[in-house]
Amino acid sequence: MRTWRPLETIVERIEAAERLDGIAETVSGWARKLIPPGPVEDVLTGVPAGHPLHPAIVTVPIGAWMSVGLLDAFGEDTAARRLTALGCVAAVPAAAAGASDWLSTGGAERRVGLVHALGNDAALTAYGLSWLARRRGQRARGIALSVLGAGLLAGAGWLGGHLAYGRGVGVDTTAFQHLPQDWTDAGPESDIPAEGALARMDADGIPLLVTRRGDAVIALADRCTHRGGPLHEGVVSGGCVTCPWHGSVFSLEDGTVRSGPATRPEPTFETRVQDGRLAVRRHDVATLRTKPIGR
Question: What pLDDT, on the 0 to 100 scale, is given for residue 115?
Answer without folding.
Answer: 97
